[in-house]
Amino acid sequence: MNNLLVLPIIIPIITAVLLVFLRSHIMLQRIISLVTMLFLSLISYVLLELIQIEGILRLDFSGWLPPFGILFVADSFSLLLVLTASIVTTICLIYAFSTIGNRHEHMFFYPFVLFLIAGVNGSFLTGDIFNLFVCFEVMLLASYVLVALGGERIQLRESLKYVLINVVASWMFLVALAYLYGTLKTLNMAHIAMRVSEVGQDPMLTTVAILFLVVFSLKAGLLLFFWLPGSYSVPPTAVQALFAALLTKVGIYALIRLFTLMFPLNQEVTHTIIGVMAGLTIIAGCMGALSGRDVYTIATYNVIIGVGFILIGLAVGTETAITGAIYYLIHDMIAKALLFLLIGMMIYLTGETVVKKISGLIRNYPLFGWIFFIVMLALAGIPPLSGFVGKVLIGQGAIEEGSYVLLGIGFGSSIIVLYSLLRIFLASFFGETTISFEDRKPIPKGATMSFILLAISIVYIGVGAEAISVYVKDAARTLINPSIYIDAILKG
Amino acid sequence: MKINDVILRTVVKGVVFIILTLGVYLFFSGHNAPGGGFIGGLVLGSGIVLLYITYDLETVHKKMPFDFKKVAAFGVLLATGSAIGSLYFDAPFLSQTDAYFNIPILGEKHLTTVTIFEAGVALTVIGTLVTIILSISEDE
């Protein structure tokens, strides 16, 4: 029992509710939400360190022992993601302070961001698959509001699509849960894993696993991403960055958990399907990124390429590849947040979304331009930035397993990513500008600060890959050997 | 056009009492019999909505000057507060406790902390239900 574990979900909820009462005190809302997020980052770091000392931690709610009660489980994988999510949210909040506008702040923007992070953290931490569904819903309900908040025509159109897709996906999630409970009579993840390994993964269970794969693919944007470009390009920039950084990643987390812990036995079927889906996702994402004329399209299709690339790691499934996938997941959360913030700022500064109509930004905003350059290199995977380690390890895993097709697609996509972003960089940042240095629109201080903080994180993960490798290796080891997880829950 | 709703108003005056009583009954019976915060909250909320439908917004609001968004928020606060209270006693999150007390006049009563949690749930349900109905009806 360790009550610290529940804090990453309960603190944002309580703070969010308190902020509802402080609706008119916007300054106070900003301070409280920022302090909350900083505190959450600190707690998740403390928990991460604690796991290195004590092993996997768990908290049985109101003392009901597993597999009977609901519980939260913290291993290095979950905590790494909780920590990254908290840091990214903190930085996105700093960006939001100076850009989101009074109207949003007055309509409970901060409470909903906190609800979102509560759902995200809950999904990462829960050890019960029905509770995972609940946490997903908490996150999705907050995201519905954040997509629609602002009430512009296009927002309402896209949010309607977004809500419908997610309601259908959630319904399928429930159906899959019902099948799972019908076959295995348990919902505790560790207990499911134990029973699956006892009875073997027969075709029935593989079917259930594939149903879950469809559900989480919809949420993660793996192949079934048709809803993603539209709904990710309509909300305000800070929200876009949060979505790009967090929402698809929760789906990816669920997929990794599902196919390493619960259904790892029938890999010829499940992992092959994941591999094919990941490859197709990357190809489709590359086509979208190449064909896009406006910055939003290019950026959202880059999210899709990232999803495909991480899941190559899962499809390959060796310890090296999983380590790479975790590194790349962390990198992708930070880099995609920064990419969306930068692109939102480009549109704020110029009022244009089409790449060719923007030009010469770097002359007026040198720092802004070079940070874009850094994130471009990081996403392409150029050392010593954050994308490099993940890409190399996933590639190494793919070679070990002989998955040369996936390897080729994955590394080919790096070039497309570089090309698509380089196109923005050359067209919009280089060249002549029509606006003189004196007449330029200033970048808000908070926004600059958030860019710098995220850029520092990218460099840190790249250069200091060794420093976080302790945690990542522990996470990968637990994922590859599900018995560590199962024993910690059922025999502890 | 003003419709003649004398019958509705007269009936509702009596019926609302029955509904609210049933709501409170369901709320308290939730311990060992069907019922509880969610169901009790739904019934109480539907009673309030019935009042809003029969009488106009202003009349009801004069007697019940609550912002139902805040009622819901207060409910969540109460529920999470009772859940997090167990952290103070170094028990696992969400732990509940109960005991028997001898109260003058009422006799021996079974008091539980889970009632506080349930009250939070009930308030959340009432607040959310009424807020949804009111926001739909405002949109005319």
TrEMBL record, chain A:
This protein's membrane topology, according to the annotation, is: Multi-pass membrane protein
Query: What keywords is this UniProt entry annotated with?
Result: Antiport, Cell membrane, Membrane, Transmembrane, Transmembrane helix, Transport
Q: A GO BP term, please? A: ATP synthesis coupled electron transport
Q: Which subcellular locations apply to this protein?
A: Cell membrane; Membrane
Fetch the InterPro entries from UniProt.
CPA3_Na-H_Antiporter_D, NADH_UbQ_OxRdtase, ND/Mrp_TM
TM segments?
A: 6-24, 31-48, 68-95, 107-124, 130-150, 162-184, 204-229, 241-263, 269-291, 303-328, 334-355, 367-385, 405-430, 451-472
List, for all copies, the residue spans of the domain called NADH:quinone oxidoreductase/Mrp antiporter transmembrane: 128-416
NCBIfam families assigned to the protein according to its UniProt record, in alphabetical order? PRK07691.1, PRK12663.1
Q: What name goes with this protein?
A: Na+/H+ antiporter subunit D
From TrEMBL, chain B:
A Pfam family matched by this chain, by name? MnhB
Q: Which residues form the signal peptide?
A: none
Matching entries from InterPro entries are given as: CPA3_antiporter_subunitB (IPR050622), MnhB (IPR007182)
Query: In terms of domain of life, where is this protein from?
Result: Bacteria
Family according to the record: Belongs to the CPA3 antiporters (TC 2.A.63) subunit B family.
Q: Which UniProt keywords apply?
A: Cell membrane, Membrane, Transmembrane, Transmembrane helix
Which organism is the protein's source?
A: Lysinibacillus telephonicus
Q: Gene Ontology terms, cellular component aspect?
A: plasma membrane
Looking at the record, the residues that make up the Na+/H+ antiporter MnhB subunit-related protein domain are: 7-131
Q: Where in the cell is it found?
A: Cell membrane
Name of the featured protein: Na(+)/H(+) antiporter subunit B
* Residue ranges of the TM segments: 7-28, 34-55, 71-91, 111-136
